[in-house]
Amino acid sequence: MFAVRDFLKSAHLGAVAVAAALLLVTSAKAQNDPLPSWNDTAPKAAIVAFVEKVTTENSPDFVPEPERIAVFDNDGTLWVEHPMYTQLAFALDRVKAEAAAHPEWKDKQPFKAVLEGDMKALAAAGEKGLVELIMETHADMTHDEFQKLVSEWLATARDPKFNKPYTELVYQPMLELLAYLRANGFKTFIVSGGGIEFVRPWAEQVYGVPPEQVVGSSIKTQFEMRDGTPTLFRLPQVNFIDDKAGKPVGINAHIGRRPIAAFGNSDGDLEMLQWTTMTGESVRFGMIIHHTDADREYAYDRKSEFGRLDKALDAAAINKWTVVDMKADWKEIFLKK
After folding, report:
1. Quick check: 143 and 220 in contact, CB under 8 A?
2. Which of 59, 117, 121, 296 reaches 20 to 30 Å from 252, CA-CA?
3. CB neighbour list of residue 254: distance below 8 Å, 6 or more residues apart
4. Which residues, other chains included, contact 53 with Cβ-Cβ below 8 Å and sequence gap of 6+?
5. Cα–Cα distances in Å, from 45 out to 35, 41, 49, 142?
6. Pair 180, 263: CB distance under 8 Å
7. Whole-number Cα distances in Å, 324 to 6, 94, 226, 256
């Protein structure tokens, strides 16, 4: 009887020891996982496999650190872009804030549409109308004045659906990806269709991407001496549009190296992904974030006014780019506080 009891006691202790060991292994594995907000599905595996290939010395796919350049679109790739691009929301608020000084706007489109909350009329104004809004609300001020406006707006503005600051509506899985790449010798750049001076004030704090690693659209700026002080003054003229075919041009002008990895979410990123991956040289990586989660965020693709994903989605299948299904592949969507 004592032998049986001792055996059972020994077996119990052994089971406890095995369970404890398994718990420690699981815990260590979780702690060592650089992408904990990603489900263990194909996109995560593809990311890890790519990084291991290009960072393993003496392998045929090894890439020296100076050449490990990764480029990321911003709107819809790193943070929320619905119900409209965040910079557009900023421009609309600027129209309302400046309306008293511009009585002519109440009868002039697209400003009339903004002041009356007529989103249909605003959409009808198209790209030309949106550029006019940007020119009127982002120019005729110094560089420092504009940076201050952006920082103050982001500190108080709230997204209409989630009632949170826009800088909290960044994607936790993508923050982990940025950190994972940097930990493996990558230099990470933002290549945005949005304004370069709109993104720079907060990109380092939110994404860990310093201002010199932000590429974006810009308006013309000129140097002036004002009251003995050297100043950069923003003019109401388009300088460069960093979208679609403009993205490879912007990358070449600002970075001077062709990236080996590119991450986007829309047709505006198609040419950037093509430029990065269709080289015939070494291993390359392209990824598209597909918004499929209507419950936790939004679901949209081919017919969306903002962040349309149509041609790039078709190209992904042809070029073997990795497509992330947000609903299936991400455990978390937004930044963990």
Report:
1. no
2. 59
3. 189, 215
4. 59, 61, 62, 283
5. 10, 7, 6, 46
6. no
7. 54, 35, 50, 28
**Which residues are 217's β-sheet partners?**
195
What is the C-alpha separation between 288 and 275, in angstroms, rounded? 14
Rounded distance between C-alpha atoms, residue 257 and residue 57, angstroms:
21
Sign of CA dihedral 61, 62, 67, 71: positive
Q: Which residues contact 75 (CB under 8 A, 6 or more apart)?
A: 81, 85, 86, 87, 192, 193, 194, 265, 306, 307
Could you give the CA distance from residue 136 to residue 118 in angstroms, rounded to a whole number? 19
Give me the amino acid identity at 3: A
More confident residue, 228 or 336: 228
Q: How far is CA 224 from CA 6, 197, 234, 235, 239, in A?
A: 89, 18, 10, 12, 18
Q: Is the dihedral of CA 42, 188, 76, 334 positive or negative?
A: positive
For residue 185, which phi and psi values (nearest 5 degrees)?
85, 10
Inform me whether the pLDDT recorded for 265 exceeds 90: yes
For the domain made up of 38-84+164-329, the CATH class stated in words is: alpha beta
Asked if the bond preceding 248 is cis, omega within 30° of 0, the reply is no
Band the pLDDT of 31: cuts 50, 70, 90. Answer: low
